[in-house]
Design brief:
Largest sheet: 4 strands, mixed
Number of strands: 4
Radius of gyration: 12 Å
Strand order of the largest sheet: 1-2-3-4
């Protein structure tokens, strides 16, 4: 299964398997989406259709979170799979994945 990135207004949907071979393009597209939003826009990333939890995906989400902070765009994550949440707990970063 390949990965897809679908921006739609204030929501970015990530789907499929995000891995080392495709993460840079996904990050580029995610950062471009964030750049298109006005400061103060409440944005969200929907993860319900992601296929695997990995440190690569977790790192991508951290990058998007930092970029959103720099642009003053409140960013939330929805549809976070349990295995990704577990991985984020192991790495001590689950607070921003579960914040609403």
């Amino acid at each position: 299964m390949s990965a897809s990135v679908e921006p739609a207004g204030d929501c970015l949907t990530l789907a499929g398997r995000i891995h080392a071979g495709n993460v840079l393009e996904i990050r580029r597209r995610g950062e471009s989406w964030l750049a298109s939003l006005s400061s103060g826009t409440n944005a969200r990333v929907d993860l319900a259709a992601t296929a695997t939890a990995s440190s690569v995906l977790l790192s991508l989400l951290l990058c998007l979170h930092r970029q959103a902070d720099r642009r003053q765009v409140p960013l939330t994550f929805t549809g976070v799979p349990d295995d990704l949440l577990g991985l984020s707990r192991l790495n001590g970063v689950s607070r921003w994945l579960t914040a609403s």
